[in-house]
Specification:
Number of domains: 2
Strand order of the largest sheet: 5-8-6-7-12
Order of helices and strands: EHEEHEHHEEEEEEEEEEHEEH
CATH topology of the largest domain: D-amino Acid Aminotransferase, Chain A, domain 1
Strand content: 25-35%
Radius of gyration: 21 Å
Number of strands: 16
Structural class: alpha+beta
Largest sheet: 5 strands, antiparallel
Mean pLDDT: 90
Shape: globular
Number of helices: 6
């Protein structure tokens, strides 16, 4: 497969070391190679000096998996220079800022837990007991890291400090579930639902106990959940996305939206990712051609 210039499509893949063995990512690379694409793998490293790109990189598309700031910097630079990016860096920034994400989802009538945020977590102790228990986490948290439970206002003293992060906390009302998490995975307009045991356990107030989860079961997705997933993805302008849902006695509640999730238990996820990315490359090429023709029609308008 080649781009609109006739050269083979080059996929620049930015992935942290911890994600390289992710099955969906491995399968996506295999599919790109099978389509005749070239792959340039970029693994962000702390002890590496990077040049800020000033010329358009020789890539047809750039795909990002991970949270390393150097990798996200490269993604933003490529996007600014006109390279199609998956996901778009502005969309990634939105969902990683949980405050902005909550505001966007609320605007689209997505069911959400009541949420507060503060720079000093001690102010959560000013809330009425009626609002407790609360789950507190860093506003730009990664997965289940940094989660803590507050059963009453005085429990704020049990919150661990945020180290190496921007110091801002998010507090959400605690939701009763059956001990399982529902993950909605999206690739463009395709969505799946996967049920997993929750990795988070609270034996009492304070930091959560987090365990690794290996069991995941693909389950049927009904119209309501499919609509929630697609609305979240489109509202946040994501191509590859995951939606964490708490199934409560009052119905589904969205906890958060993530960019490029694991797609665990989703059959053919890697192939679907690869095909979706290649479709976006084709759409970008068509848009460029259409733009050029429009420009020519203006400058060559008959006198």
């Amino acid at each position: 497969m080649s781009d609109n210039g006739g050269a083979p499509i080059t996929v620049a893949l930015v992935a942290e070391e911890r994600h390289i063995s992710n099955q969906a990512l491995v399968d996506a690379q295999a599919a790109w190679l099978a389509h005749g694409c070239r792959i340039e793998l970029v693994v962000p490293e702390e002890a590496r000096l990077y040049d800020v790109p000033v010329e358009v990189p020789p890539w047809s598309v750039m795909v990002s998996r991970g949270r390393h700031l150097a990798g996200l910097g490269l993604l933003a630079a490529a996007s600014a220079l006109g390279v199609p990016t998956v996901n778009d860096p502005k969309a990634i920034e939105l969902v990683r800022n949980k405050i902005g994400m909550q505001a966007v989802l609320a605007h689209h009538d997505i069911p959400l837990p009541r949420t507060w945020f503060a720079g000093d977590p001690a102010v959560f102790g000013q809330l009425s007991q009626d609002f407790f228990p609360l789950v507190v986490k860093p506003y730009d948290g990664d997965g289940s890291r940094g989660l803590a439970l507050l059963n009453e206002p005085g429990d704020v003293k049990l919150l661990p400090p945020i180290t190496g992060r921007r110091s801002l906390y998010l507090a959400q009302e605690y939701l009763e579930t059956d001990g399982y998490d529902l993950k909605l995975y999206g690739i463009g307009s395709k969505v799946w639902a996967v049920r997993k045991p929750s990795p988070v356990n609270f034996s009492g107030p304070g930091p959560a106990e987090v365990t690794a989860v290996v069991d995941a079961e693909l389950v049927d997705i009904d119209r309501q959940l499919a609509d929630i997933a697609l609305t979240c993805g489109r509202a946040c302008q994501l191509e590859l996305f995951g939606v964490d849902v708490a199934m409560t006695p009052n119905g589904p509640v969205v906890i958060e939206v993530n960019d490029f999730p694991t797609y665990s238990a989703v059959p053919g996820a890697g192939m679907a990712i690869a095909e979706h990315v290649l479709t976006l490359v084709e759409m970008h090429a068509v848009a460029q051609d259409a733009g050029r023709e429009h420009y020519r029609s203006i400058v060559r308008r008959p006198q």
